[in-house]
Amino acid sequence: MASTFINKDEILRKIKLLLNIKSDDYDEKLKYLIDLITDEVSIYINYKDSDKLPVKLENIIVDICTKYLKVNNLGIEDIAISDTKSIKRGDTAIEFNTSNILTTMKSVGYIEQELKLLNHFKRIKMR
Fold first, then answer.
1. Nearest-CA neighbor of 26 among 15, 38, 18?
2. What is the pTM of this model?
3. Selection from 115, 93, 116 nearest residue 103 by Cα
4. Best label site of 21, 37, 73, 92, fewest CB within 10 Å?
5. What local confidence, expressed as pLDDT, does residue 58 receive?
């Protein structure tokens, strides 16, 4: 029976496949990024436990991680980053860092489609 929750090892495997990373040398950095993104996704959609996110979110998390890594490769030589180190929208240039990735990427419209998909998983908090 398939798991109903995300599998971070499977997310790691998919990221390495998509970015053609053959070495295990960077697994710790990639696992950190996966933890960071899953934590931010769980906060965004109001889930208390990032390890219990629905399995349907795996590919969205993979997509966000690979987009982030294409702009900021975190020192992973195997990843070819884009020619620019930032994304420009109008007069604004944004350089990515590891804090608050979803907000930074959203502010430049880089993951609008992913956020629309995440909105389907949002839980409403009653106060």
1. 15
2. 0.75
3. 115
4. 92
5. 95
Contact 4, 55 (CB under 8 A): yes
Report how far residue 65's alpha carbon sits from residue 1's, in angstroms, rounded to the nearest whole number. 27
Cα angle 63, 67, 72; round to 5: 145
Q: Which residues make Cβ contacts (< 8 Å) with residue 44, sequence separation at least 6?
A: 102, 115, 118, 122
Q: Among 91, 89, 40, which Cα is nearest to 68's?
A: 40
User: Would you tell me the crossing angle of helices 27-44 and 112-119 to the nearest 10 degrees?
Assistant: 50
Q: Mean pLDDT, consecutive 10-residue segments, the chain of 127 residues?
A: 86 94 93 94 90 93 89 73 55 58 64 82 79
